[in-house]
Specification:
Alpha-Beta Plaits; alpha+beta; SH3 type barrels; 3 domains; 5-stranded antiparallel sheet
Amino acid sequence: MTASVLTIIASSDSWKSTISYEIIKGNAIWRFALVLLVILVTMALGRIMQYGIESYARRREEKRGVSVVTLILKCLSKPLYVAIFALGLFVCKLFLYFDDQEGIHKAIGTGWIKIAKSVGAIALAYGLFRLVDVIEYYLNRWAAKTATKLDDMLVPVIRKSLRITIAIIATLFIAETILGAGQIKTILLSAGVGGIAIALAAKDTIANFFGSVTIFADRPFQIDELVRIGEHLGPVEEVGFRSTKIRTLQGHLVTVPNSVIVNSAVENVGRRPFIRRTSNITITYDSGQRGAERAVEIIKEVLSNVPEINTAPENPPRVYFSDFNDWSLNIYVSYWVRPPDYWLYQEVNERVNLEIMKRFEAEQIAFAFPSQTLYIEKG
């Protein structure tokens, strides 16, 4: 047992010595000194260029305001530092000897190039990742000019989609550089087979995603609009990839899957041009014909003096002596309040009700309430 352990340790030490020898073989000490110097110079140069670009962009923005140039310079200052470091790794390869055709020496040289390419790919992906901010800036400016607020929600969705796409492409490129195209194809093929199972398991998520696309395309509602979806009534707070959030009138936050919204009737209460009120005002039978006629005239006069009540020919106030109830004379009242503000609607109703009561009291017209008169005939 002890002999086996000593043999393994000796083999490990021998292997490490072989690698050290292969790395140093053909490379004098001054070559490693140059490699260290190049790395330090590239790091310093990267920092200097990053500081210079950021300072120039800041001064330009103070003089000329925000522009495409300043936005691009700010976004590319940090990725440029990574790119210079990747270039330094390529230059370092020139000072080392990795020219033999086989063995650890060749593997180290090939691995060095792969690492340098990977760092360069990271720098490129980082630059594209940051440039998405430029696109987002101008999309926000465009969305601010539109009347709809749904565009404001679409901008973060586009930003996330672009960044996820860039990250996936960069990951595949780096993996191909390190592992090789053959292994990547094998991995992607395996992922494709597994993806079918994942897609079946995530069919609801996919349905919600396409539901969000439908909502952004059809725009059945906007942010902050009052909607009724199923049993939920409230303003829309947020529209995402998976769900839409509604704040109910009770203050509860309800998350509705987008696939449910697409397959349901959406009542957009916020887009109504007015709020309609219908009511029945009842007066006693003792009021008689003249009392009923006078009550209708009073209600029409009250409604005509309220500026928020719509008086257009297509939707004028409607007041009629409509029915003989069991215990009252019924006057039907209908009118439309503009603008369609719910609390303004309640205020208008209060003003109308108080004025009708005031005028009825002055004319001695009594409101009816459920009652029954019993007549007893003496036989």
